[in-house]
Amino acid sequence: MEMKKRINLELRNQAPEEVTELVLDNCRSSNGEIEGLNDSFKELEFLSMANVQLTSLAKLPTLSKLRKLELSDNIISGGLEVLAERCPNLTYLNLSGNKIKDLGTVEALQNLKNLKSLDLFSCEITNLEDYRDSIFDLLQQITYLDGFDQEDNEAPDSEDEDDEGNFMKPIYRNSFL
């Protein structure tokens, strides 16, 4: 199913301005781009676009209330600076199963000041020597990387928010891990 059609289906007769959660997993993107999603989704707090063959985030609209973004199992290899510009309040970001290879690509996430949990599981970057230490040094705002903190303690077993409103544990819903 095409992404635009899936969005219309998921709206369930709601106006885009009323939607706080949108799951578009396993639909088809057009030429690897986001389509059908626009600035009118201004209340969106959770967006999942897992396994939609995305190669680019260039057409991601401004979603200033978005706190949780699920982008696992796509073909994204860069362009992450868009996230800080358009989704400045992200606390959770799942990029597992994408084509992220180096620290320079991830460096763009430094401007996501509220980011607490980042998932890069099954990305090439995880093969780098001292991968975890390098990411924690580069992104000092994060608490959890691939579901574990710097001391290898697992994120709390909750898919919801903690008392401070931070999303804590990666959700692998509809992922092929």
UniProtKB/TrEMBL annotation:
Keyword annotations: Chaperone, Chromatin regulator, Cytoplasm, Leucine-rich repeat, Nucleus, Repeat
Subcellular localization, as worded in the UniProt entry: Cytoplasm; Nucleus
Single GO biological process annotation from the record: regulation of apoptotic process
Region (Disordered): 149-177
Signal sequence interval, chain numbering: none
Compositional bias segments (type: Acidic residues): 149-165
Family in the record: Belongs to the ANP32 family.
Protein name: Acidic leucine-rich nuclear phosphoprotein 32 family member
